[in-house]
C-alpha cells in the first residue's frame, strides 16, 4: 500500500455518516445520541504530553472502546470521487472503518477511524461516541497481533460548515488517532448538522 497521508482529505467531513437514518425513519424515537460537553473539549489536543513509542506499521482490524461498549471490526476506507472520506456500509451497525491510504494506528502521524452513529434500525457502532470522557481508553487490534492503546485527549463537536480540517486530519509528530461520527444539531429534513471527533494519542501497546 502506498501511503499518501491525510492531506488528500481537504475541506470535507464524514457527511455520509450523518443522515440520521434511525431518527428520520422512526415514529417512536426523537432522541439524538449523546453529545460531548464543553468540559471534554480543548482548543488544541495536548501535543506535548507523554506518548508511547511508535509501533511498526501494521493494518488495524478491530476497535474497542470499553467505556462505551464498542467492540467492532475495522474495514479499509478510501476517498470518494468527490474527495470525501468514504464510509462503511450503513446496513452493518457494528462496523467501523479506517483511512487506509493514511497513517496506520500506532504509527507516527494521525490515523483516522470513522463509523455510523445509527442506521434505519437503530443505534450503530459510534452512537455513544459523544459520551466519551478525557482519559478514556481506545484499543486498536492490529493484524500483527499487537494492540495499540490510545488515551483520549479531547472530545469535540463541530458544525459541518466550520469543520477544522487541519486540526482533525493534520500531521502529528507522535502516534495520534481521530475517531469520527456524526453529531451536533439534528434536523428531520437534513439529518445531523456536524461531526463528533475524538482526539487521542498512543500511550501503550501489548
From TrEMBL:
Q: Which InterPro entries match?
A: Sortase, Sortase_dom-sf, Sortase_F
Q: Which UniProt keywords apply?
A: Hydrolase
Q: Does the keyword Heme apply?
A: no
Segments carrying the region annotation (Disordered) are 30-62
Q: Does the keyword Hydrolase apply?
A: yes
Q: Which CDD domains match?
A: Sortase_F (cd05829)
Protein name in UniProt? Class F sortase
Q: Which organism is it from?
A: Streptomyces cynarae
Amino acid at each position: 500500500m502506498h501511503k499518501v497521508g491525510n492531506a488528500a482529505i481537504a475541506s470535507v467531513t464524514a457527511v455520509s455518516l450523518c443522515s440520521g437514518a434511525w431518527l428520520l425513519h422512526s415514529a417512536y424515537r426523537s432522541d439524538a445520541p449523546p453529545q460531548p460537553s464543553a468540559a471534554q473539549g480543548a482548543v488544541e489536543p495536548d501535543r506535548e504530553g507523554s506518548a508511547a513509542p511508535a509501533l511498526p506499521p501494521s493494518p488495524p482490524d478491530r476497535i474497542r472502546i470499553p467505556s462505551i461498549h464498542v467492540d467492532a471490526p475495522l474495514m479499509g476506507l478510501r476517498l470518494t470521487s468527490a474527495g470525501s472520506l468514504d464510509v462503511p456500509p450503513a446496513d452493518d451497525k457494528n462496523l467501523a472503518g479506517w483511512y487506509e491510504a493514511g497513517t496506520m494506528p500506532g504509527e507516527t502521524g494521525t490515523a483516522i477511524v470513522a463509523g455510523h452513529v445509527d442506521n434505519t434500525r437503530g443505534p450503530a457502532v459510534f452512537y455513544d461516541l459523544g459520551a466519551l470522557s478525557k482519559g478514556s481508553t481506545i484499543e486498536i487490534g492490529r493484524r500483527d497481533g499487537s494492540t495499540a492503546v490510545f488515551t483520549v485527549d479531547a472530545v469535540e463537536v463541530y458544525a459541518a460548515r466550520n469543520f477544522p480540517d487541519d486540526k482533525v486530519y493534520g500531521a502529528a509528530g507522535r502516534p495520534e488517532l481521530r475517531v469520527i461520527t456524526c453529531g451536533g444539531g439534528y434536523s428531520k429534513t437534513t439529518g445531523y448538522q456536524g461531526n463528533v471527533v475524538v482526539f487521542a494519542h498512543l500511550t501503550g501497546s501489548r
